[in-house]
Every structure is written in C-alpha cells, then in structure tokens.
Amino acid sequence: MTTREKPWHGVMVATALPLREDLSVDFDGYAAHCRRLVEQGCDGVVPNGSLGEYQTLTPEERARVVETAAAAIGGDRVMPGVAAYGAAEARRWAEQARDAGCQVVMLLPPNAYRADERAVLAHYREVAKAGLPIVAYNNPYDTKVDLVPSLLAELHAEGLIVGVKEFTGDVRRAYEIAELAPGLEVLIGSDDVVLELALAGATGWVAGYPNALPASCAALYRAAVAGDLATALPLYRTLHPLLRWDARTEFVQAIKLSMDLAGLHGGPCRQPRVPLTAEQDAVVRAATEKALAEGLR
C-alpha cells in the first residue's frame, strides 16, 4: 500500500497507450510512461479506459497492459478498467487485474446495452465476485446508462461499489450523492470540473491531461483539495483550454498531441479514431504551447 489511504485516492491517470507508427503497442514505452507519471507527482494509473483505446486491443494486449503497469509502479497504484459487453467478461478482466496484483478496478455499467436498474445491479453483482473493490464509472454519454445518485446509493448500500468516477460534468451531483450514499467516494471524472468537484469533497481524480502535463496537473489537484484557491485558480485558468478537451470526442487525439509537444510519446491512434482536423490540431497545439511557455510541465 502506498501513502494514500486507499488505492483509488489521489491523481489516478487514465493512461494513454503509446503506439508505434505501425500501431503496435510500445509496452516498454508504456512502462516508462507509468513510472514518469508517479515520479512527477501522480498517484497511480488507470489502464484500459477509453483513453487507453482498450476497445481496439486484443485480449492478449489488454492483459499485458495491466501487467506492464503493475510491474512498473506496483499493483497498488493501478486501477484497471474492466469494462465489457457482458458481466462474465468484465468479471474475468477483474480477476486478471486481481491476479496481476491490483487492489481495485473501475467498472462501467453494460457498455453496449441500454440496461435498466435490474440489469445494472446484476452486472455489478457478478463482477464483485472477483473480490476486488469496484469504482463505478458513470459515463451516460457513451453507455446510454446513467448511474444517477439514487442508483449509486443502491449499489453502495449492497456493498458493490466503493466510489464513482463521475463524468457527467454536473457538479451538483456530488452533493446529492453525499446525501443519499454517505461514505460513497466521488472521483472527478472529467478534467474540466476538477476544481469544482475537488472543492465538493472528491477524494480522487481519474485524469486525462496529466498524461501530458503531470506535475502541473498534480499541483492543481493538491491545491484544489486543500482549498488553496490562490494556487489552484491560476493553474486552472491556464490549463482549462486543454482540460475541456477531455470531454470531447477527440480527447485521445488531443491528449496524445499534447504529449508529443511536451516531449513525451503520444503517437498515433488506432481506428476508428482518425487524426485531428487542421483546425482542431491548431487549437490544441496553441493551448499546449502556451501552457509550456508559461512553465507548466
């Protein structure tokens, strides 16, 4: 166990996956990336999320990503995404994470089926059989299933989840969750509301842009949770033109471009993602270069 109270606390970076020009996975590069993030002040990584392009990986690649991260920084710093179409497959990924030494997993509701409340409960019950704590991931834009506060409270009351990555962008939900499910921890799920949800009591940030600017993003989070607005607000204003890309369709391409500009290896994406348009590239490039020029790293 790290100095964190729980293995899902702090800045948990949803890692981009470095690909070579032939689109093969650079596992050595990924291990180095995980180590660099921790060295720069982040607390751990979340492999096999959308930012890691898990939907495009073979089963062998997906398993090796988790094993690579755990070997690089320790399983207690790794919270793999275990999303799958069905609960049986998601449970197998949770078991694989457990066997790799991880101590928590992150789980979407059924991600290609518009599940009702009964189906969501059954899904989480099955994956919980793997024996690891589960952080739910609420992303109704992609899954078409909204883990509303009342449903989260039911999942928590049954002992199925310990926290939720909240990606709706509706910061008001943090307060309703605290009322309906005391003890259920909220993790910031969208980069562009990190300050608001940190002030609302979030205990972690499943973060995208620390892939490119880890030290500055970690400093922003630490200041925000400490209520140090004199430090947090200037950082937030400088970073926000980049952070808002985390909630856009092209977030993987944008973050990888920023990584490349920061001297890290972002690289290309696998299909169905295609390169940014010239206009999008220019916007991301200008915001990244401005942040770098102001000393953010």
From TrEMBL:
Keywords on record: Lyase
Cited SMART domains: DHDPS (SM01130)
Alphabetical list of SUPFAM superfamilies matching this protein: Aldolase
Pfam families, sorted: DHDPS (PF00701)
UniProt xrefs under InterPro entries: Aldolase_TIM, DapA-like
Family designation: Belongs to the DapA family.
The protein, known as: Dihydrodipicolinate synthase family protein
Native source organism of the sequence: Sphaerisporangium rhizosphaerae
